[in-house]
């Protein structure tokens, strides 16, 4: 079976772009791997009415002592745009998995809180992701840490580590 990404690399080199070929292979491989992983995650979360973004927010809230965070803090911790947090919160609120209210100490701040049902759904989603995706990410166990380390370097180069 031929690899279309390797074929693209061959084409890159043939056209005189050899100095960029390995980088193109890396970026294209990452993009394809993301699509594969996202499809696996979506297959687990979709039956629960969740996307990965909504799951991450629920899980983040479940990790907090009070089950609540200001929406701006949640966005910063999840490294997403405020509009993405607002969208996720709106969808989760409709599903009665979170609630929103003004902060008692500062009415300009909106606090999002996980509901008991949100905790139940987050726990179920985590159990399913752990058993169906996270414990079997598609690489041998000894290579998973290598991948994490390489991707951390990429993230660090982009200033993504905070």
UniProtKB/TrEMBL annotation:
<protein>
    <submittedName>
        <fullName>MarR family transcriptional regulator</fullName>
    </submittedName>
</protein>
<feature type="domain" description="HTH marR-type">
    <location>
        <begin position="20"/>
        <end position="156"/>
    </location>
</feature>
<dbReference type="InterPro" id="IPR000835">
    <property type="entry name" value="HTH_MarR-typ"/>
</dbReference>
<keyword id="KW-0804">Transcription</keyword>
<dbReference type="Pfam" id="PF12802">
    <property type="entry name" value="MarR_2"/>
</dbReference>
<keyword id="KW-0805">Transcription regulation</keyword>
<dbReference type="InterPro" id="IPR036390">
    <property type="entry name" value="WH_DNA-bd_sf"/>
</dbReference>
<dbReference type="InterPro" id="IPR023187">
    <property type="entry name" value="Tscrpt_reg_MarR-type_CS"/>
</dbReference>
<dbReference type="InterPro" id="IPR039422">
    <property type="entry name" value="MarR/SlyA-like"/>
</dbReference>
<keyword id="KW-0238">DNA-binding</keyword>
<dbReference type="InterPro" id="IPR036388">
    <property type="entry name" value="WH-like_DNA-bd_sf"/>
</dbReference>
């Amino acid at each position: 079976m031929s690899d279309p990404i390797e074929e693209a690399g061959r084409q890159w080199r043939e056209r005189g772009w050899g100095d960029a070929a390995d980088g193109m292979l890396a970026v294209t491989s990452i993009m394809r791997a993301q699509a594969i992983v996202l499809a696996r995650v979506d297959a687990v979360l979709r039956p629960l009415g969740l996307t990965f973004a909504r799951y991450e927010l629920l899980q983040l809230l479940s990790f907090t002592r009070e089950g609540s965070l200001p929406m701006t803090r949640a966005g910063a911790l999840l490294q997403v745009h405020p509009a993405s947090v607002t969208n996720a919160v709106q969808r989760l609120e409709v599903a009665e998995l979170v609630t929103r209210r003004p902060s008692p100490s500062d009415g300009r701040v909106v606090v999002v809180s996980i509901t008991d049902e949100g905790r139940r759904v987050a726990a179920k989603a985590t159990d399913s992701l752990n058993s169906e995706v996270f414990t079997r990410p598609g690489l041998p166990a000894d290579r998973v840490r290598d991948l994490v380390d390489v991707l951390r370097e990429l993230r660090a180069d982009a200033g993504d580590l905070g």
